[in-house]
Specification:
single chain, mainly alpha, Arc Repressor Mutant, subunit A, Tetracycline Repressor, domain 2, 2 domains
């Protein structure tokens, strides 16, 4: 029996990811992936029993990569605000480089109901924890206080997901900074009339 090599496995996953990014899931055949990876179909089946196993492996790898990227970017920032900007920018950049991922995540969520593993859970759980830890550090350092951290964390991450999926392309300069400032300070500044009223109260 031939030994499996990580390099060959990664090569096939890269090929599958490329095809999933350019076609609908049901349109991609195992022979297409084999051709894209320049391997025989038999070699492909030695590593993966079917297309479902391949896309779950792609998600598991991407999930781990996003967590590593988030941690690295957060470690480089000096303040909690800068850490949130780093998180926002990392998420937007990560998904912009992998536009097919959201569809694969959605497919995996549906499969989860049928008893399959959900390999994106690591990125989801650890991403939420990273944001909550930033909120806690900000409060401790006296930078800012988030009154409902769990809700605010879901709003921030959910908003980033919406920006990635439906936001303007190409991305405006300083988008991550604008998102975080809008999140921390408020997206709507009071009108002049409203400000005068508040000043008289």
């Amino acid at each position: 029996m031939r030994t499996k090599t990580p390099f060959l496995r990664e090569k096939m996953l890269e090929a599958a990811g490329k095809l999933f990014g350019s076609k609908r899931f049901h349109e991609v055949r195992m022979e297409d992936i084999a051709a894209e990876a320049a391997v025989s179909k038999g070699t492909l089946y030695r590593y993966f029993q079917d297309k479902e196993e391949m896309f779950l492996a792609i998600l598991a790898r991407a999930s781990h990569e996003l967590v590593l990227e988030l941690r690295a970017r957060v470690a480089e920032a000096n303040t909690s605000r800068e850490r949130l900007i780093a998180v926002a920018d990392a998420i937007i950049t990560f998904f912009d480089r992998r536009p097919h991922l959201f569809d694969l995540i959605q497919r995996a969520e549906l499969a989860q109901g049928q008893g399959r593993a959900f390999p994106w859970q690591e990125a989801r759980d650890k991403g939420m924890r990273i944001v909550l830890d930033i909120f806690a550090a900000a409060r401790q350092a006296g930078e800012f206080t988030v009154s409902q951290p769990e809700t605010a964390m879901l709003m921030l991450l959910g908003g980033l997901r919406a920006v990635v999926r439906a936001g303007v392309q190409p991305r405006p300069q300083g988008l991550a900074r604008d998102i975080v400032d809008g999140f921390l300070i408020g997206a709507a500044a009071p009108t002049r009339k409203r400000s005068q009223k508040l000043a008289r109260v």
